[in-house]
Amino acid sequence: MLLTKVRNENPLIHCMTNVVVTNFTANGLLALGASPVMAYANEEVAELASVAGALLLNIGTLSKEQIDNMIIAGQAANRAGVPVILDPVGAGATPFRTNMSKRILNQVEVSILRGNAGEIASLIGVEASVKGVDGAISGDNVALAKQAAMEFNCVSVVTGEVDIISDGTIVHAIHNGHPWLTKVVGTGCLLGAVIGAFVAVWKHNLAEAAVYAVSYYGVAGEAAFARTQEEGIGSFQQAFLNELHLLTEETVERKRRIKAL
Ligand SMILES: Nc1ncnc2c1ncn2[C@@H]1O[C@H](COP(=O)(O)OP(=O)(O)OP(=O)(O)O)[C@@H](O)[C@H]1O
Ligand SMILES: Cc1ncsc1CCO
Ligand SMILES: [Mg+2]
User: According to the UniProt entry, where is the signal peptide (predicted)?
Assistant: First the structure.
């Protein structure tokens, strides 16, 4: 239902993202059936954010000035009731990234916080040592997702082998995806934009929209791998965009593996 809704409504997603993934993000949104616009200038971000279906703030190649403009855009989105997705790329890697992510979280009401376990852990002051066996990863990540959602009053999406989504009370684990998604740059970044497209058409239940978006994305990764495993990751990247475009609601609902915890 939600995938059809995105394709029918073609929501405008205002992306303030990093220079590495800009083209991939725009093409991924188009493949899904949403409309991307990348805009950064102080003179226009508030206006664009307030008419968009969702606003994505991704700090991947940040500068202090860009963060200032993200906050202007984020506050305009808040006033207009437009959901805001934050991807705190590299939080924990440098104090600058951690502090700028926290600045956004303090000054903007973030609807969805999407990051890998290390990034989310650094924002809530948890020791970022989350790599290891499956059980341990998802066990740790459940607590991490819940705590982040409560602390920042948002829906958190902690991605990895198993993706964990929480609104602070309810937790869902998504067992889809493929390791090759980590061999193509920016799949996490594009996922933030894709979540934006789903929440744009399902604003009354952000967690449900995020669960749908993340499972759809994982199923697309699996289908792309099935088509290109003999060829390699260059072909996989293209096939992944193809699958974002081709996947049907029926296939997503049949192949997704969602567990309520
Ligand atoms: N080991 C894995 N197995 C299956 N899927 C995975 C695995 N690791 C990551 N993914 C999937 O890859 C996508 C990106 O998640 P990831 O956690 O790698 O984001 P990220 O670290 O922010 O990536 P980037 O910074 O490159 O954009 C998600 O859809 C996630 O489910
Ligand atoms: C490689 C890289 N460096 C800064 S942002 C980015 C894209 C992946 O998140
Ligand atoms: Mg990332």
Answer: none
